[in-house]
Amino acid sequence: MDGSGKSPLTILRKKLSLGDSWLVYDGETAENPRILVKKNVNLLKTKCLAHVSSTGGCQKPVYEIDGCYSRRICAVYDDKRWRVMEIKPKESSVRGVAFGMDIFRLVVQPGFDMPDEPRPPAAWDLGLGGWLGKKGFYFFIFFIIYIYIYIYIYIYIYIYIYIYKFIIILLIIYNLFFNKYYIY
């Protein structure tokens, strides 16, 4: 509920559907649903729990929820597989103090409510952005590609030099034994 005691969203279960699905409405009205949430029904065991899509003309999934809800470890990914939200168990800073399963942390990434804004991928969230910065990250990728090309060219030239030396040695041995050609 908000500060005035009204519900900002209403969640209703969709009755006539093959799988579990829910409709999310604005406020306390049941008109014009905003979001459709479908439980993932897959015979293969995947980490995907549900798909979230808009209820407009396009039924393309906007978000995907992965993880294990019973252990309160879930992550919400957008259509580009960038992590936008995460649920984690609450961790205590004091050793030996444990919280129950009903106490958890919700971490929301910046830009979650702006779907058109560019967001960094999940690897960026894991730390590459923190210790490199944006320009440093691009320099790091450029440096790795440069080293890869340099090593490839070095090995290529190295092998051909040794093949060339091997052919010269064979010619010298041939000349020594058969004395047909002279190398000056």
From TrEMBL:
Transmembrane helix in keyword set: yes
UniProt xrefs under InterPro entries: LOR (IPR007612), LOR_sf (IPR038595), Tubby-like_C (IPR025659)
Asked if Membrane is a keyword of the record, the answer is: yes
Supply the alphabetized keyword list: Membrane, Transmembrane, Transmembrane helix
Its transmembrane ranges are: 137-155, 161-178
Lineage top rank: taxon:
Eukaryota
Leader sequence range is none
Q: Which family does it belong to?
A: Belongs to the LOR family.
Q: Can you name this protein?
A: Uncharacterized protein
